[in-house]
Amino acid sequence: MPLRIDKKGTEESSQNEKAKSRLVLRVCLVILFLAILHIGSEQTGLKGFRGNALFPASTSSALVWKSSSSSSSSSSQQKEVILDLVDDEQEYIKWLVEEREKVSNVTEIKTPIKVLYRAMAGLGHQLLRLSSAYHLLTIYQIPLIWPTANPVCGGTIFTIYEHLIGKGPLFVDLPYLKEKNSYHMEIIALPLRFPKLEFVNETELSEEERQELVRGINLNNEIPGYSHAVGDVWDMDLPRFQEMDFYNKFQTDYQMYHQLMLLFEHKHRTKINEIHEKTRFSSHTVFALHIRTGNGETGDFEKKSRGIKNLEQWTETVIELLCDYRERNSPLFDKKPLMIFVGTDTGSIVPKLQNISSTLCQIPIVSADQAYPEEGKSVSFLQKYDNDEKCLQGWENMFMDMYFFTKANTVVTGSYSSFTQAAPMSFVMHRAKKNGMLNDNSHPHLFCELNRYGNRMDCFQDFENWLRRNAVKYFGNMSSPEQRIRQELPFPNWRIKSISINKLFAKTLLREPADSKKPSSSSTNRMTFQEWMALNEIATTNNTKNNMKKKKNA
Ligand SMILES: *[C@@H]1O[C@H](CO)[C@@H](O)[C@H](O)[C@H]1NC(C)=O
Ligand SMILES: *[C@@H]1O[C@H](CO)[C@@H](O)[C@H](O)[C@H]1NC(C)=O
Ligand SMILES: *[C@@H]1O[C@H](CO)[C@@H](O)[C@H](O)[C@H]1NC(C)=O
Ligand SMILES: *[C@@H]1O[C@H](CO)[C@@H](O)[C@H](O)[C@H]1NC(C)=O
Ligand SMILES: *[C@@H]1O[C@H](CO)[C@@H](O)[C@H](O)[C@H]1NC(C)=O
Fold first, then answer.
1. Which residue of 154, 321, 367, 436 has the fewest C-beta atoms within 10 A of its own C-beta?
2. Domain residues of the chain, as ranges?
3. Which protein residue has the closest C-alpha to ligand 2 atom 10?
4. How many angstroms is it from 52 CA to the middle of ligand 4?
5. Each residue of 346-361: pLDDT tens digit?
């Protein structure tokens, strides 16, 4: 995804310059703050090969966990812990299924705009972009989205998603969730360069405009205005995103993934129950381990060099690491022993892992026991299946893995992949909000990354620290390099040269209100970022000064 930074001296970029210089100051402060924190964490001494116990056996684990999480820079700890979206998931599923039947039954378009999202490439890639589309629709208040895919499994554009989650759209607006419905959550301001748009009354359009009116939008692959984090540029924008609470992106993501998983569960319940029972999933502390080797795949995969070079060596080192981890954190696995659920594109790796584990420390290793393709043929969107049934089965298997990843205690990613950064990460970070409250000796929820030698694991419990590469826990050989993972999680990204959201909605009922140039005073929900900055300039400057005083006094 090419990102260009506008270096031209346009009016806009000179505004950006001002914003940037303010930001640089803030970034410096944050770096200073993090540096202080870092010195603090250095004292725990993690040099050389030394398994670092999460919790020393001598102390109560809950206590240690609480004190360690309060020293993290996250502000989310202070916020009230958000309980799950619904009390009764089965009742919610029932509601979802019934409502979907109603809306997909209607042939005539009832909503002013019908949005179809056409997904491409692998499952992780698809869902991460679908999450952007979902977020865009909460911003502009479009209540439904129809996920589609290219007809790779024969059939129509709807075939894959109908097979996975049944017929019908996803709900962007979920009245069932009441005050937890992210569709109605206030956003502090629109992302920078996102236009302010409002629905107009159709009767007020001219005859000509009415004839040109567009009611259907096809979003293909990338979503205008959205992109993942990119190195230094991202670092500079991060404070701004924090200030904006990430435009509620984490909330809308979770709302979408949670819905997707429940719809999948509803449709594939028998198979899910079978796997649950066979693996004795719920009587274990499950670490979901994702291993993507590429399995003979070339092209995009090879370019990003995501494959693991020496698989044999790597798997052995990883099992050693996990054996050691379990040993040093044994009180946390007393009630529910550790089990590893493997999600992979290379089926043959599962018996290899099992074999190593049985010689080293007997951690049970399970998988969804899928019909993996033959060795050397990857589970990939590029794969040619000889029939549509098998093709759909391939997608179902990938989704099944993802489903069980969302049920795991901790997600461990073996190499860079958008798979783990979609639903699994959203779920584990959501659960991790409760880590500070765990007082039953259970293992905290973590998102962990193994490095390419398999001898070091860096773990995160919130998005902000993950984006900053500021791990809350590490384990293994700290002289070994950490995983240089690509952060694929998308956000509104004002540095994309062409935002083109205006173009996307051109000729629909969503239009720029006539008075959009004036700063809005009433509806903060639809204020643009520039307006918000203008209103907050004084307050922001004061805060910065105060923070600086605090730092000096400290
Ligand atoms: C609409 O859904 C109902 C069930 O709620 C079903 O009985 C009916 O046949 C559907 N109508 C169409 C046109 O599919
Ligand atoms: C649109 O405007 C017409 C006439 O001005 C009015 O009757 C109608 O209720 C309006 N529709 C909505 C959805 O506001
Ligand atoms: C398990 O490992 C042993 C020793 O490394 C090897 O001899 C045996 O063939 C392996 N078994 C399987 C099923 O891979
Ligand atoms: C730890 O990692 C470093 C760097 O990869 C390596 O040189 C060293 O041998 C490792 N130590 C152990 C005990 O494996
Ligand atoms: C900012 O600080 C100045 C003086 O330091 C003060 O006069 C002003 O009222 C403050 N503004 C706000 C919004 O707090």
1. 154
2. 84-245+499-534, 282-479
3. 201
4. 15
5. 788 899 999 999 999 9
